[in-house]
Amino acid sequence: MNPNRRGVWPWRPVICGLLAAALAGCHARSAAPANLVPDSARARWAVGRAMELWKAGRPTGVIEPTEPRIQVVDSNRKAGQVLEDYRILAETSSLRERTLSVRVRLRGPDEEAVVRYLVMGADPILVFRQEDYDLMMHWEHKMDPEAEDAAPGPEPPAAPRRADEDLPRRPSGAPG
After folding, report:
1. What DSSP state is assigned to residue 95?
2. Where is the signal peptide (predicted)?
């Protein structure tokens, strides 16, 4: 054994063990927990429950009593507009959410549209309209209609005056 390497060999198993533990720990944290993305049946149940309550005239928010609870976020509903019918068309899934496309037929005013809902969580199950989820992810929100119509704010303050503005000016040809 080389005398210069004598102190390195006893530490090799310890170093390899620490490296393996660190790599295993990093891998386990990189994936999203599977239980935060509801399975297809549970996601369809949550969206269907939200649609049925919309048909019944109930507002968005926490739907109770259900087990698990459902939280619906849909700020694009127009006041007085009623859901007449709906049909779940398609479904996709990712590591973070399950997305369902829903054809909705609305009355008052009449409208038909395909709306995407993102479903995630375990209890509560969160049902986000795609537009609301996008606004939340970008730290934005729909503006309050009253705030848009508000009077304009005060005028910005005038620029500060220079100290020599009040002094009389010398004529251009005067000696200095």
Report:
1. S
2. 1-31
